[in-house]
Amino acid sequence: MRCRVLFWIVAVLLFGEGVPPVGTGFAESTPWMRVPDERFGQGWGLLDLENLYDFGRWEETNSLTGDWGGLRHQLYDAGIAIMGSYENQIAANPATGRVRTVRDADTLSAAAFFDLDRLAGLTDTFFLVSMAEREGKSTSADIPNLFPVQQVYGGETIRLDHLAIEKGFLEGRFDVVAGRINALDDFAVSNFYCYSQNGGICGSPLSLETNASLSNYPFASWGIRGRYDLEPDLYSMTGVYNTWENFASNKYHGVDFSIRHDSGVAVMQEFGYRPISLRQAGYPGFIKLGGLYDSEPRHPFPDGGEIAGNWMVYALAQQRIFRRACDGFSQGLTGFLTFTYSPPATNATEYFADGGPVYRGLVPSRKDDALGAFAVFGESSPDYRDAQRAVHESVQTYEMVLELNYRVQVSSWSAIQPDLQYIVRPDGTGRTGNALVLALYTTIRF
């Protein structure tokens, strides 16, 4: 009961007062909430067998299933979009590891987007409901290692993800999202993270969700988040989320809506700077600084002791470094770098960093293909290592993963990505030799 009251008190204090006066609108949105601006193509896509063997038809449609004989366009015009996707990641460790094997994991997801302005006359209001089904096994469990080599592994069941509403205010300058949402859909986000297949990078910096029970796709929790554009190139974002160690358990399927007495409240804050002049010149980039405080009683160390109260800070920078004059706006070399720090007395991972360059359109005739090189590093805290020694566990110090891949955009709705990962000091203990992982990622949009 105390946690439930605290959650709503903090939410009201942060979002119920102090909204700045109306200024020039900057039309900042929440991309994952909005009805996608899609061209679905014609007919039934590749479900029409006449299109299956004609590659030219593949390029004319933006989804595997087309516009469902016109129904999708009718729904879109009314303010409704239904989207789906399938992702598969195969990974093998042929040379080293406790078990040498090949594993595959996959995710099938679906979402329905509603523009409530078109549907009900509610200006700048949107609703989203989504679900995901995951199956498969983890190659990282066989090696074993800390940073999952298959990002889509985890939560092998069918579950509800988003159940959220968004409202824009002040001519688009202030934006609020509330409901069953994912904290790490908004905070410490880069649109280049998931060119990597490794779970330490793709989605969010892994330390944020392992050192706190923060919601991240496809594991949503109760939350409310507000974002305000202080200036056209500077924003402030605040979020409040319910945190509980077992909220992502498969047995709940994402529909346990209770706020438990032993859960906590995470308050997140981020400031972001996105220079307009660089964006207009074709060199977009940003700097994000953020952190959080979490009140949840947790058991982060192997001795089972309870710790209440935790904080973390992070910094993220991303910048397009190079583009040829003949390239399109989205082509070129972009790099990103992320760093997080968590105090050692309350966290298993103290230092975490990831980053790398991605070159889109390296081959002129393949403007949507991408070559990526990445690294992720995590170092265990001294307090965590002391707790492991106390219970006679193998002591984990650090793990690092190096990754190289090339994404082939087969069509606007499908891609394949051969992937190579090299794991240094697997599981952080050194008991297993450095491991090589060969992987393949496939994605299809319905």
Top keywords for this entry?
9 helices; mainly beta; Porin; globular; 42% strand; 446 residues; single chain
Helicity level, as a percent range?
10-25%
Terminal-residue CA separation: 43 Å
- Calculate the mean pLDDT score and round it: 88
Strand order of the largest sheet: 1-2-3-4-5-6-7-8-9-10-11-12-13-14-15-16
Q: State the major sheet.
A: 16 strands, antiparallel, barrel
The CATH topology, please?
A: Porin
Number of domains: 1
How large a portion of the residues is in β-strands, by DSSP E? 35-45%
Query: So what's the overall shape?
Result: globular
β-strand number: 16
Q: Tell me the name of the CATH class.
A: Mainly Beta
- Element order, helices and strands? HHHHEEHEHEEHEEEHEEEEEHEEE
CATH architecture: Beta Barrel
Given helix and strand content, the structural type is: mainly beta
Given the structure, what is the number of helices?
9
Stretches with pLDDT under 50, minimum 5 residues: 1-27
The CATH superfamily appears as: Carbohydrate-selective porin OprB
Query: How much is the radius of gyration in Å?
Result: 22 Å
